[in-house]
Design a protein that fits this description.
- By secondary structure, the chain is an all-alpha fold.
- The chain has a domain of 152 residues.
- The chain is 71% helix and 0% strand.
- The protein contains eleven helices and no strands.
- Helix 1 packs antiparallel against helix 2 and helix 4 runs antiparallel to helix 8.
- 38% of the residues are buried.
């Protein structure tokens, strides 16, 4: 709200935002508001802690409403990030890598899915920071499909286990053929397995990157993608 107030002080909603002080204040307010809403480092502690909500609510929150609203705001104002892409990259890469590492050691399988949202949001922000906002928007839409189904299948497993969420007690546990197939397909989708829905956004993103984007950032990005596969295989 403060960001849009500062934007109105610039006298115009698009043309004069770069040359007046209101545009600078708008950028700061909207940027930090958006990365807080989308739980980027160092504002990411609230997202795994929000798992006390019912699982259908978590499905909506993580796939298409609360968290991704920050993504959509930044995509709408992607022009503002053309000069500060390196600054945005730092937040996104830290979130992507640390989220992946945390998910690899988490015991609560519902929190693993929640923390994977952090990793995917970091990927969206990284793609946005290098100027490919269309692919960031595409991945946001595709992420909503497989993440919501992952949460719903996790909720089904929690209900079947009478509220149990500790994955150490359910190793090798099989529940329902159709539900298991849904869960497996969505895990493959999140990992970017060929010819599932997540493949078409993640593979396009990876093929659009080049060494000119910064070698260190690129290595960290691929390491974050590798961690995504690791915690998905562990979850299955």
């Amino acid at each position: 709200m403060l960001g849009f107030y500062f934007f109105s002080l610039s006298g115009a909603w698009w043309n004069d935002v770069f040359c007046l002080w209101g545009g600078v204040l708008f950028f700061c307010a909207v940027f930090f508001g958006a990365i807080t809403k989308r739980a980027q480092i160092p504002f990411s502690a609230w997202l795994p802690a929000a798992m006390a909500a019912p699982t259908p609510v978590s499905s909506l929150v993580h796939s298409s409403t609360l968290v991704t609203a920050g993504v959509y705001v930044l995509i709408r104002y992607h022009v503002l990030f053309s000069g500060v892409g390196w600054f945005v990259k730092v937040f996104s890469i830290l979130t992507m890598v640390l989220g992946g590492i945390t998910a690899c050691f988490e015991k609560d399988f519902k929190k693993v899915i929640a923390i994977s949202t952090l990793s995917q949001l970091g990927m969206m922000l990284f793609v946005l920071s290098i100027g490919i906002w269309v692919l960031s928007y595409l991945h946001m839409l595709i992420h909503a499909f497989f993440k919501s189904i992952l949460f719903l299948r996790a909720g089904s497993l929690i209900s079947h286990n009478f509220g149990g969420q500790d994955s150490r007690f359910y190793g090798g546990y099989f529940f329902g053929g159709v539900g298991y197939v849904y869960f497996l397909i969505r895990c493959l989708s999140l990992s970017g397995f060929p010819f599932v829905i997540g493949f078409y956004s993640k593979d396009t993103i990876i093929s659009s990157l080049s060494l000119g984007r910064g070698f260190v950032f690129l290595c960290c990005f691929f390491f974050g993608c590798f961690l995504t596969v690791c915690y998905r295989v562990r979850l299955v």
